[in-house]
Write a structure and sequence with these properties.
The two termini are about 40 Å apart. The protein is about 5% helix and about 40% strand. By secondary structure, it is mostly beta strands. The protein is globular, with a radius of gyration of 22 Å.
Amino acid sequence: MIGSAHFSRLTIRSAIFLAASLPIVLSLRAQAQNNASQPTFSARPVSGTTAPGETMDMKAAPPASTLGRRPVREIPRGTPFTRGQEQALKDHARRRALQAPAQTEGNGPSAPAPPGGRGTPSASQAFFPPNTASQQNFCNSFIPSDMAVAASTDFVVQVTNSCIVVLSASGGALLSGPTALCSFFAVSCGDIVGDPRGLYDPNAGVFIVIAEDFTANNLLIAASTSGDPTSTYNLHSVPMGLACGGGGDFPMAGQTLQESGDALGALYVSWNEFCPGGTFTNDVIAFAKSQVYSTNALTLFGFINITLGGVPLDHIQPVNVMNKSDRPRAEFLISTLDFGFGGGQCINGCNGLVVLGFYNTISGSAVFSGILIPTANTYFLPPNADQPGCTSGSCLINTGPPAITGTVNYSSGQLYAAISTGGNFAGAGTLFWQVHPTLNDAGNVTGATILNEICACGVFRGSGSMYYATVQPDSEGNFTVAYNFSSTVDFPGIAYLTQRVTQATGAFEDFGFFLAAGSAFYQQLDMFGRNRWGDYTGTAFSQTIPNSYWFSGEYSDPTQIWDTAIGENGYTDPSQP
């Protein structure tokens, strides 16, 4: 484990080499500057080009219902551990949780109706199947339901494993879909396509969707050609075995709205890469938006094999710059310590957040810098979550690693992130952070301050668990947290809580409401024997109503296995608590 008081900074400058027409990225030489007495970062800069893209008309894509039913297949979830090792780590986390006093009464989300005096505003809109995704069609014959949401003034786009739907932002009418992601990205529908992310560029009026073709080991990118997400898209494909020739997993996405080299900004993507021989590493790549928004070949810039103290990082989340007026000098990325730290997945505890910065990434003189800052709370691998009728064994809901899995948003100089965590308390909890990073005039990350840290841990009814949370702020600093919740008395469902920027830091005012409470026992095991739940929830800033948020997740259902719901809430009236 790396000491929590340590921090380090690294700067890398790279010359740019463009592979003439090869859909690969070529490594460049890197020079690092580090203080040898502190933990050090290292990375390899990369650049290259992809093959040209193509255009797809969403209206011409066949409805998912015409593709026929298929047996349920799983979206892979990569891990550097064997099945036995991962099970042993989760068993250890479970034993730690069982040593804590069980919570028979206490906190948690309430039914979706607003009792008086609570701080969370109830949902002003809530959309459910058949307008949102469920498992009972071809495109969602997958486990689990990872979740992406993007929104404009008129449209809400929901992307899951493995389909896309477009709804009206006013009333939730189904405008397009369900469309299978294989059809949407124009790849074989025999391929496994999932792990989606969705963004909206408020300046260009463009929807961006990414997903992984696990069969082909390619990252798929789609950008709408207009503000209408039911129409045409420009498509691109990027190979994912860039760092070590391994298999890509868990793609993540963020954006900037302006950069040196492109007035539109850049799209940033990252993923974990599992190498031949059982090791792992990471890839973080940027693309100029003017190329993404065309069918031209993409020029790639970025860094691979980012390590801290010689240990590769994982789940490095590029941040989503969400406000039309925000222009940070660098693109920030953030991660926790996870796979290679704290005895493996932080089973013995980890402390610290990694804040990275990419400066001049697409202009030809990329600069990379990073810093490790201590956290008030030590975090651990979370135990798997109870549900009614299940307090042990493979029916426990898998809560994943102590990694940031949901999108990290940048708003008015602050980063908002959350992880699932374990500790000396019953169930899994959530750690929330609001972080203010600082840069010098050369674009290097020189520091970061945690302005608000909340551990929602060990306070839930029925030894309940709060997991896979995603934080969505607004431009004022209010925020909504979308999360999953289950306990010995609650089947797994999607919930949300909301906090005003003027409320006290260090604790949530309440735990909000269920958008959709689970109503059935859930069990869908993957090849590792994990009872997989969606690895992240989805959120988006409302472009229509100030201080409002969209959020989406899954809930258990007796006939559909899992269904999904989309909600909107926010502080739209000063009289609200």
